[in-house]
Write a structure and sequence with these properties.
53 residues; three-stranded antiparallel β-sheet; 3 strands; globular
Length: 53
């Protein structure tokens, strides 16, 4: 999965569906978990991008 990272390694370019496929779960589960992370200021979400805070 390293090829999804930008050089600063804090931004991952991947869809929730792709991430779910990689780890073997559904897009809905990934979205729910990431939303919880976002609500706790762990990540920032945008289209096809997850930024680690």
């Amino acid at each position: 999965m390293l090829y999804y990272f930008e050089q600063d390694e804090k931004i991952v370019h991947i869809s929730h569906e792709e991430l779910g496929d990689i780890i073997g779960t559904s897009r809905e589960v990934i979205s729910r978990i990431l939303k919880g992370f976002e609500n706790n200021n762990i990540v920032k979400l945008s289209r096809l991008k997850i930024e680690i805070c």
